[in-house]
């Protein structure tokens, strides 16, 4: 998850950002994509007075109780982190793609690379980028999209000691990828009539300054979906970002609740969590976040919500490492999404 830029001031510890807010109400124009990125409308976790640890104790769920292998997902997370920083165009990003494509193909998915080229914001050189589209039941004409970004920010710019240091991006990058890797392992049991696509977006935060654009991969994907209709339609979707924090609380994201179709998607996912007893999905609006779901909603008109726990102290610091992440958190989020697919994909 990237920093707010040209919005106002922020406090890294609490991730409170003040400034202007863009909502999706009425599906706003694409100009919002290159301006404000994150705005917390309040501080629901602290005001709430209930920590995620307490919520986890109340839910009494352990890894053994959850039919989604969070420990294996955590192993994947560490495997990705071992590649090192993975900014767009880097050797580690290429290695990550070389890991993911054969992995999903062995599981029976159709994997397509969507390549595009951008100018490096610092020197103007060409940078090759590539989204990966992993299709389950590719023959289906109506589909569900599950998106993550698999690039990491070039630097830990919010680190108070070393803002030009080494950024691993365990939660902010690897967590969504790891969750989809494990979800792919159980997609053989998916019986829905809707097709399902996992989309790995490149260039979500290939930024070096305040004016650099975000969401390059999801914007390109959305524009291609409109300019070259693929012969199928996405009925709905979700973007998964920062879903492995040990202190997990996932509030409903503000933009996702502001547009009716994406609000319906949000509420259906939180209803699934409620039925499963996963209390870390809190049915109340928390942060308003401009993430990869914004171009999908505004440009492609796909109802997509953002599943994100933004209150993460190691956000954009050198501390965003695997040790800050949790197999149990991955298990809980993965289970919710898995069960949501079962009911929604019918």
Give a concise summary.
By secondary structure, the chain is α/β, with parallel strands linked by helices. 33% of the residues lie in helices and 20% in strands.
Which features would summarize this protein structure in a list?
6-stranded mixed beta sheet, globular, alpha/beta, 346 residues, two-stranded antiparallel ribbon, Aminopeptidase
Fold blueprint:
Blueprint: E1 10-11, E2 16-17, E3 38-40, H1 44-48, H2 52-59, H3 70-81, H4 91-106, E4 110-119, E5 126-136, E6 142-149, H5 170-185, E7 195-201, H6 216-227, E8 233-241, E9 250-252, H7 254-258, H8 260-276, E10 281-285, E11 287-289, H9 293-298, E12 304-308, H10 327-344
Description:
- The chain has 346 residues and is of the alpha/beta class.
- It has a single domain, classed as Zn peptidases (Aminopeptidase).
- 33% of the residues lie in helices and 20% in strands.
- The protein is built from ten helices and twelve strands.
- The protein has helices spanning 44-48, 52-59, 70-81, 91-106, 170-185, 216-227, 254-258, 260-276, 293-298, 327-344; strands at residues 10-11, 16-17, 38-40, 110-119, 126-136, 142-149, 195-201, 233-241, 250-252, 281-285, 287-289, 304-308.
- The chain has a six-stranded mixed sheet. Strands 1-2 form a two-stranded antiparallel sheet. A two-stranded antiparallel ribbon has the order 3-11.
- Helix 5 links the parallel strand 6 (142-149) and strand 7 (195-201).
- The longest helix is centred in the last third of the chain and has 18 residues, at 327-344.
